[in-house]
Amino acid sequence: MPIKIPKQLPARDILEKENIFVMDEERANTQDIRPLNILIVNLMPEKEKTEAQLLRLLGNTPLQVNITFLKMETHESKNTSKYHLNQFYLTFDEVKEKKYDGMIITGAPVEKLEFSEVTYWDELSKIMNWSKTHVTSSMHICWGAQAALFHHYDIGKFELSKKCSGVYEHTLLNNTEKLVRGFDDIFHAPHSRYTDVSIEAIENHPDLLTLAISDDAGAYLICSKDGRHIMITGHPEYESCTLQQEYARDIQKGLSIAVPENYFPGDNPEKKPPHKWRSHANLLFSNWLNYYVYQETPYKWS
């Protein structure tokens, strides 16, 4: 699909070099169709990298999509320039009167904190409450998934004895759900987190479905029965080098961190890691956009 993004957005050059169809406002405005409006609440520290990762996956269907990036007013980013944020991001006050077909809430490096200790928790809670009446379907990634499970379903998180970092095998539990249509019974996905959620608590909740789990990484893909909330505890949007960069960063910080599991060939950090989850990541985003957003959203919000 063509993604409608600003001409100056740095991710545009990256995507065009990868032959991903992007479209600027001028051309999009000449097309007589109803595009999907997707709001991305980007909580990741290196926002420009996350922008490219998400736009790459959102650009793999025939649908036209308008993207709006949202920043937290109650948090000052240390890794992204104010110029970039001011040019490409809006605040909640600037979007709260609008309706969106879909919303993505990313992960954030705050999982060791209690939710109430996160500086922007009240603001994010307000956004999640607002989404109940202003968004057709929301996708929540990693810490964003844990935040949604806690806020909407009162399911908390717990700290792991060591960081869950690597690329893990996952087993599909329910192949009748539209979100996993076309998935293999066994597939790979990357994880990078210090906390987890209880599979038992999710399975015992009357409003939730567990769609895929990993013996090593726990619950991976959770869906509300009404399709309004998709929770992904891993990072399907990651590039093949992302875990490698995180590992090098942690080593440079002097952290006692293990080599990401099932990632480097022969567990050798000097070797280039293969991208083993690309196809399922694309299928996951495509299914969400088609079945949970496009097929469910009204042509005219009222």
UniProtKB/TrEMBL annotation:
<dbReference type="GO" id="GO:0005737">
    <property type="term" value="C:cytoplasm"/>
</dbReference>
<keyword id="KW-0486">Methionine biosynthesis</keyword>
<dbReference type="InterPro" id="IPR029062">
    <property type="entry name" value="Class_I_gatase-like"/>
</dbReference>
<dbReference type="GO" id="GO:0008899">
    <property type="term" value="F:homoserine O-succinyltransferase activity"/>
</dbReference>
<comment type="similarity">
    <text>Belongs to the MetA family.</text>
</comment>
<dbReference type="GO" id="GO:0004414">
    <property type="term" value="F:homoserine O-acetyltransferase activity"/>
</dbReference>
<keyword id="KW-0012">Acyltransferase</keyword>
<keyword id="KW-0028">Amino-acid biosynthesis</keyword>
<protein>
    <recommendedName>
        <fullName>Homoserine O-acetyltransferase</fullName>
        <ecNumber>2.3.1.31</ecNumber>
    </recommendedName>
</protein>
<comment type="function">
    <text>Transfers an acetyl group from acetyl-CoA to L-homoserine, forming acetyl-L-homoserine.</text>
</comment>
<feature type="binding site">
    <location>
        <position position="192"/>
    </location>
    <ligand>
        <name>substrate</name>
    </ligand>
</feature>
<comment type="pathway">
    <text>Amino-acid biosynthesis; L-methionine biosynthesis via de novo pathway; O-acetyl-L-homoserine from L-homoserine: step 1/1.</text>
</comment>
<keyword id="KW-0808">Transferase</keyword>
<feature type="active site" description="Proton acceptor">
    <location>
        <position position="235"/>
    </location>
</feature>
<keyword id="KW-0963">Cytoplasm</keyword>
<feature type="site" description="Important for acyl-CoA specificity">
    <location>
        <position position="111"/>
    </location>
</feature>
<dbReference type="InterPro" id="IPR033752">
    <property type="entry name" value="MetA_family"/>
</dbReference>
<feature type="active site">
    <location>
        <position position="237"/>
    </location>
</feature>
<feature type="site" description="Important for substrate specificity">
    <location>
        <position position="192"/>
    </location>
</feature>
<dbReference type="Pfam" id="PF04204">
    <property type="entry name" value="HTS"/>
</dbReference>
<dbReference type="GO" id="GO:0019281">
    <property type="term" value="P:L-methionine biosynthetic process from homoserine via O-succinyl-L-homoserine and cystathionine"/>
</dbReference>
<dbReference type="InterPro" id="IPR005697">
    <property type="entry name" value="HST_MetA"/>
</dbReference>
<feature type="binding site">
    <location>
        <position position="163"/>
    </location>
    <ligand>
        <name>substrate</name>
    </ligand>
</feature>
<feature type="binding site">
    <location>
        <position position="249"/>
    </location>
    <ligand>
        <name>substrate</name>
    </ligand>
</feature>
<feature type="active site" description="Acyl-thioester intermediate">
    <location>
        <position position="142"/>
    </location>
</feature>
